[in-house]
Amino acid sequence: MSITSNLKINRERLWDSLMEMAKIGPGIAGGNNRQALTDVDAEGRELFQSWCTEAGMTMGLDQMGTMFARREGTDPDALPVYVGSHLDTQPTGGKYDGVLGVLGGLEIVRQLNEMNVKTKHPIVVVNWTNEEGARFAPPMVAAGVFAGKHTLQWAYDREDAEGLKLGDELKRIGWCGDEAVGDRKMKAFFELHIEQGPILEKENVDVGVVTHGQGLNWLQVTLIGKESHTGSTPMSMRCNAGLGMARITQLVDEIAWSHEPHAVGAVGHCDVFPNSRNIIPGRSVFTIDFRHPDKATIAEMESELRAAAEKICADMGLQMEIEQVGGFDPVEFDKDCVTAVRNACERLGYSHRDLVSGAGHDACWINSVAPTAMVMCPCVDGLSHNEAEEITPEWAEAGVNVLFHAVVETAEIVAS
């Protein structure tokens, strides 16, 4: 049975579901605070499970608490097509980041049921645990365990700011399953997400076809200078670790610009010591975030940073230590899955363009164990991880319709 442009989701039902989920864990400025493994996370999971049950799906739960809602296919031995994202949010998060991908997957199943359309391959809607990493670092931890990047015990031992462990909190809220993590085999995985950037809105493009995920390199730099009085130390005799940090911050920006258009870089977290208004900083500690879709370019950016920063420090009399504190390699998504997304855009008449995802997503880990692709929809001003995060019902509809077609094409419609 061929897939036609008439195969579309119910926009009003999708939007109502998004707004209903947003009532759980409301923020203080219109968004959400539904951090992983909190009581409100458990409440959101319960609502999602109830909707899945109403849609005739069966729920699987693994030892990381990841939820797998399954709609059966006509061939019980066929590998399932997975679709989803995450329901947890940042402390001051929006209503759509991750949630659109999960509830978009649910809407696909609801619409297939309503149209009485069967697929050869089962379809499984996924809610990955702790994608944000806001409460338990690092992000995408459940998908990371699933893909074999972390061990289960290592994940269980992650602690929040109060010293509570991920494994203990998972059990406390009642969402720790028995299923071994990573045992499931997938025909493919598709994830829909808001762009978290301004390109689609600025260019008035309906849908982003994500071809790659940027690699990430996190470096922590420690500079040691000499604390001294700001008023009585001559400029020529200062050894200012704060000034060294400022010059390296400028250097990071210059390096990113020199590798445009895909390179980005910035200094994020920073501390100066003793952080007193009348003492020249004797020590500064700060993080550098370099990203690019090419692994060799990331390495080149780090090499340039180290060489130029050493010269800055030598000229200023500063000691420097650079430590890598995180990162992952760039991702190239599966060409067949990407083609399915692109075909869906063209079949439905949506404007589209290729995108490189600048943020990490569960799909970036799952891509290492199953064919994977991502769909993106615009968001207002590119704003995300912010309570002011906003999309339109029309953007949501376009994104989920494309997701719908890509998933169903891969799951193979069976003629009735």
Quick synopsis:
Helices cover 35% and strands 23% of the residues. The chain has 416 residues and is an alpha+beta fold. The strands form four sheets. Strands 1, 2, 3, 5, 6, 7, 14, 15 and 16 form a nine-stranded mixed β-sheet that branches. The chain has a four-stranded antiparallel β-sheet with strand order 10-12-8-13, covered by helices on one side. It has a two-stranded antiparallel ribbon with strand order 4-17.
Write the layout of secondary structure elements.
Elements: H1 11-22, H2 39-54, E1 58-61, E2 67-71, E3 81-85, H3 99-115, E4 118-119, E5 123-127, H4 141-146, H5 152-156, H6 166-172, E6 188-194, H7 199-202, E7 207-213, E8 215-224, E9 228-229, H8 241-258, E10 264-273, E11 279-280, E12 283-292, H9 295-316, E13 319-328, E14 331-332, H10 335-348, E15 352-357, H11 362-366, E16 372-377, H12 393-411, E17 413-414
Parallel strand pairs: 3-5, 3-6, 6-16, 7-15
Antiparallel strand pairs: 1-2, 2-5, 4-17, 7-14, 7-16, 8-12, 8-13, 9-11, 10-12
Helix pairs in contact: 1-3, 1-12, 3-12, 8-9, 10-12
